[in-house]
Amino acid sequence: MAEKxxxxxxxxxxxxxxxxxxxxxxxxxxxxxxxxxxFVHTAMDCGLNYFDHADIYGGGRCEExxxxxxxxxxxxxxxxxxxxxxxxxxKGFYDFSTGYxxxxxxxxxxxxxTDYLDVLLLHRPDALMEPEEVAEAFERLYAAGKVRAFGxxxxxxxxxxxxxxxxxxxxxxxxxxxxxxxxxxxxxxxxVNMDSPGAADRDGSVLAYCRLNGVTxxxxxxxxxxxxxxxxxxxxxYGELNRALRELAERYGTTPTVIAAxxxxxxxxxxxxxxxxxxxxxxxxxxTAQTIRLTREEWYRLYLAAGHPLP
Length: 311
Hints:
Layout: E1 6-11, E2 14-19, E3 21-24, H1 33-45, E4 50-52, H2 61-71, E5 82-87, E6 89-90, E7 93-94, H3 98-112, E8 117-122, H4 131-143, E9 147-153, H5 157-164, E10 171-177, H6 184-190, H7 206-212, E11 216-220, H8 239-252, H9 256-266, E12 272-274, H10 280-287, H11 296-305
Parallel strand pairs: 3-4, 3-12, 4-5, 5-8, 8-9, 9-10, 10-11, 11-12
Antiparallel strand pairs: 1-2, 6-7
Helix pairs in contact: 1-2, 2-3, 3-4, 8-9, 8-11
């Protein structure tokens, strides 16, 4: 079996190899403690020790339940995990003020029952963001040892540059929606100077920016269609794509899900795929994408089958 892919992240003073697959914990709130214990053990047994949370997932219950499992399980050590969470979304508005970031971070730590987060992301852009306030919050969290590294989600390059004007710590992650059908940030780099729909630059060339600045793109909703319409896997409107996925899955002795994840991992930006499943068997399935490297021809075949033209 091919060696599993890794990604390198600068977390605090250390450059750490982390899995190319991150375990998204958005859907774990309905599990019992025993069920989640099995899920976490399955992830760790697969080498998936990077867990992605957010304070709004399950109204905080996802973090709370995960913390209960972590605190009550002597066989899993906190130091063997990379814990990431996000803050900034409140009911009806976004809030990147100093006070709220500090309050939110303390709440995350309390629910996860840990003394520190490895990575804290700003969740979505706050139109009223003042970079000085974010910088103050980050500095206090970092100095207190509560957060080791920082990042953002769904931000354009100019927004990240605005933050970097004041924030001392590097922004190591930008979490962005990305899948075969939701891949405008690749299409606008392929259809440059064309009048086709894919040529529209809706994100400020964020993919190129992240590559230039050593920011890891974390792909969320990696199996979803645009506009939250559900998964494209097996969907009638993506018949050609699903046929191509099935054919490649047969070639590699795997599943269309794995090939769809491998397509993301094949990009030289060295992205991480953030899973959204709470099922152990599906997590084990997706994890195997780390061992598959599609050829250039196979990658472009899927890109075209997803509806993207080549000029």
